[in-house]
Amino acid sequence: MSTNDLFPPFLYQVGLGGIGGFLVGYAVKKIIKILAVLIGAFIVFILYLGYIGVLNVNYDKLTDFVEKAMPYLEKAPGFLLPMISSLPFAGSFLLGFALGLKKG
User: Fold this and answer.
1) Is the full-model pTM beyond 0.70?
2) Distances (CA, A) of 101 to 59, 61, 62, 85, 104
3) Rounded CA separation 88/20 (Å)
4) What distances in angstroms separate CA 44 from CA 15, 55, 58, 77, one per listed residue?
5) What single string gives the DSSP state of each residue in the chain?
6) What range does the domain containing 8 cover?
7) Which backbone phi and psi does 22 adopt, to 5 degrees?
């Protein structure tokens, strides 16, 4: 009895895509949480160094830099979509990814 007899190729792709998407989504959410904590700690550290006088932060230039970087950051998720949509199990992958993000 082969795997094609047990699971038709369509169900295999949907199942594999869903499980893979869930695992990737779960991992991405955990990584994002860790990065958020690290970035937050870094910002607090920089603010503390500014408070005690070690650093002099130019907030106007920092704000300008962040505003100029935002259009590039907004385009970043668009690069992932064509790669995923070309896969035959894209729908189940995206559903699993969304569930992984929600459960992570």
Assistant:
1) no
2) 34, 34, 31, 18, 5
3) 13
4) 43, 13, 16, 27
5) --HHHHS-HHHHHHHHHHHHHHHHHHHHHHHHHHHHHHHHHHHHHHHHHHHTTS----HHHHHHHHHHHHHHHHHGGGGHHHHHHTSTTHHHHHHHHHHHHHH-
6) 3-103
7) -60, -45
Give the integer Cα–Cα distance in Å for 66 and 19.
36
Show the tokens assigned to 5.
């007899």
Give the chain's domain count.
Answer: 1
Q: What six digits make up the tokens of 24?
A: 């990737």
Which tens digit of pLDDT belongs to each residue from 31-86? 988 998 999 899 889 888 888 989 887 889 988 998 888 887 777 666 666 665 55
